[in-house]
Amino acid sequence: MTEKDTYKTINTSTEAILFKDKNSKFFGYAYPITSEDDVKLHINNLKKEHHAARHWCYAYQIGTENISYRANDDGEPNNSAGMPIYGQIQSFNVTNVLIVVVRYFGGVKLGVGGLINAYKTTAQLTLESSKIIEKTINVNYLISFGYKNMNTVMRIIKEQNLNITNQKLEMDCQITIAVRKKNANQVFKTFSHLFEINIEQL
């Protein structure tokens, strides 16, 4: 069985999706994220935008191989908001994503079952309106070499269609490349066999 080296995520944040139930309004938002700092930033921005709302419930998942996730009910009954939202992240099989559902209470209680349905449906509609893309899981390498070996390094990068993410080309050169995981070992071997050229994983 080949090792999985792709994952699904969303490419941009979505416009708000509105779901209504018994006068309560639920606004759903999806954001691409890479860290917990991103989560705090988006939640804080939504709290400013929806300062009159009652709850800002959310769930997120970060990572491709080492997964971290969190589901937050933000004052709603236990597991009635965050987990239904997280369930949709799992259902759509996406990662590096944050879903926030902002609730305005309409005066009629929905009960736990009603809340679960409302948060789940809002998260589902939000993800359905997002553009889901597939990305490769990459390994980053730093290649260090003297200027005289520049042509050799550049030729291999071009031949193997490698993606340069950073470069410093002086007397001592350093190039950072991102390599799709399934090709990583081969690329590492190619460079490590070369004289006067050093490669290390970042």
UniProtKB/TrEMBL annotation:
InterPro entries reported for this sequence: Impact, Impact_N, Impact_N_sf, Ribosomal_Su5_D2-typ_SF
Chain ranges of the Impact N-terminal domain: 22-126
Pfam family membership, one: Impact_N
Record Gene3D superfamilies: Impact, N-terminal domain
Similarity annotation: Belongs to the IMPACT family.
The name this protein goes by in its record: IMPACT family protein
Source organism of this protein record: Gelatiniphilus marinus
Organism taxonomic ancestry: Bacteria, Pseudomonadati, Bacteroidota, Flavobacteriia, Flavobacteriales
